[in-house]
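#struct-pred
JK: can someone run the complex with magnesium ion? inputs below
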Amino acid sequence: MPRDNATFEPVRDWSTYPPVQETIRSDGSLGWLKRISPVVLTHRWRILWSVVAALVAMVAQILVPRVIGLAIDRSLINRTSGLWFFMVFLLILGVARAAATFGYRYGLYGMAFKVEYQLRTLLFQHLGKLSFSFFDRVQSGQIISRANSDIRSVQMFMAFAPIMAVQFFSFVVAIGLMAAISVPLTAITMIALPGVFAIGQRLRKIMFPLSWVIQSRQAEIATVVDESVNGVRVVKAFAAERHQIESLARGAERLRWANMVQHWTRASHTPFIENLPRVALAVVLLVGGLQTIDGSLTVGELVSFNLYILLLQAPFRFIGMLLILGQRAKASAERIYEILDEVPAVVDRHGAVDLVPSGGHVTFSDVSFAYGTEIVGGTPGKESAPLVLDRFTLDIPAGQTVAIVGRTGSGKSTIARLLMRFYDVQGGCVSVDGHDIASVTQTSLRAAVSLVPDEPFLFSTSVHDNIAYGKPGASRQEVEAAAIAAQAHEFILDLEHGYDTVVGERGYDLSGGQRQRISLARLFLSDPQVIVLDDSTSAIDVEIEERIHGSLSGLMRERTTIVIAHRLSTIALADRVVLVEGGRVVADGTHQQLLDGEPRYVETLAASLGEDSW
Ligand SMILES: Nc1ncnc2c1ncn2[C@@H]1O[C@H](COP(=O)(O)OP(=O)(O)O)[C@@H](O)[C@H]1O
Ligand SMILES: [Mg+2]
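RT: done, structure tokens with the ligand placed:
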């Protein structure tokens, strides 16, 4: 029970969140409902009893006009039976209808929210499997809006569709009961049906593309908001708030327009669908009234008949709603399927084994790589992408520390990403201790090889949890030892709550150097066999870096280390320096050897030192 925001607690906090086993059908040519059926049918019993309850509610409702008609004829006009009998019967129908309505609403909404949970979990599980090449391409606002508003519109349809199906059934039953009273009058009632059908078809045709447009415009807005918040430092630095507000306003205006068209369409179609049957009401009153006067129809029968026509209004209203919700859910489902149908580019091979590292001997042999050429959904991407690595060959014996030096854009970070198998190579092979990394499991590879990226990412949890991210059960002592090695212990103790301080989103309340030291501590704790530091000490003061070198070289003794750096102090740490240019190794030796005999090395160092002081 929420008392106020600060003490709000969820009513029930699950200790385990069951993974979702069932998934959508992969055949993209099937209709959207068929594709989602394995997920929905996990609730088949719930759907069944809800529909039964809904039928009970409908029958209870449909009997009312008939009972009222009989009450008028038998109790009021012919006085053959008592009024109380009909009253009690109507009361029972009312109670039955209330109970059954509660039952089916509870059942169907419960089902729809479970489907929502399943879809969202499926989507997230799938996102976890997708590779970097996917995230390089897709805007996070798109993913956020698909996980929110698109899933919600599918959920709404799930809750309503069975009710509508029952409504349709009640429509048929009502027609049957009407025909039992008078076939000609029933035929008159039906005159509007072809018109309703035609308008419904038209509405359906317009609604589908419109719903698609609306959902994608919502995603556009989500993207602008996402970028304005995540990029707020750039926005402010360039005083570009106006620009961001303008792009948001443009998106909001585009969404408003599409929403207006949708509501205009809806407003101009649904009244006809709902009210065309009322035309019949007038004709029925005329014809039925004449029949009552000449005695071929009783007053009670005429009253029930008119009540039925009014009752039929509800199914007609629902037809309009079903068309709108259905088209929206279809558009949304297809947007969700777009992500679920995305095939992960990097996958464990069939029969992949765990890598058991022994020393950390890293080899790149004839590796060729270009971005954006991964195979997407069975077809290779663009072929013309420039090669970032061109038959790149480098052998790093176990335990060695190698510095990779090269100009910006020469492919240094790419080398690190390929060793982590964030992308698959297009030619050649990367291996660790003699195992092709494409033939081992990704989990075991990433346990053996660790990367500290140039832009370290912190989660908005405590410093302790950030350091222990790769080893969640780590004790405070272990975390502190890692932090001491990374020269982070002292500044962490100065934070307001020490290791329990919660860092702001992405750790922006810490300095760049502090963030780098926390991610170094994260690496020290996870204890990998091969370490890759991608410019990971660039924001750390030279004196502190020197102290880190002490612990790093202690750590490096039994490990292979690849340092991507352009600072002399960092390079000096390495046994060997490799100069990368044009996607290949162009010089290889100690720092001193390269300084003495390789003019390109001196040039590159001079250029990157220049960048550094910039
Ligand atoms: N995710 C990516 N998608 C497409 N191209 C990329 C991507 N990352 C890097 N590149 C390109 O690959 C080249 C090498 O980049 P990178 O390995 O980051 O260089 P370095 O780390 O040496 O500065 C650059 O031309 C860069 O534009
Ligand atoms: Mg880089």
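RT: quick notes.
Residues 136, 371-372, 388, 406, 408-414 surround adenosine-5'-diphosphate (ligand 1) (CB under 6 Å).
The chain has two domains: 32-340, 362-613.
JK: thanks, will look after standup
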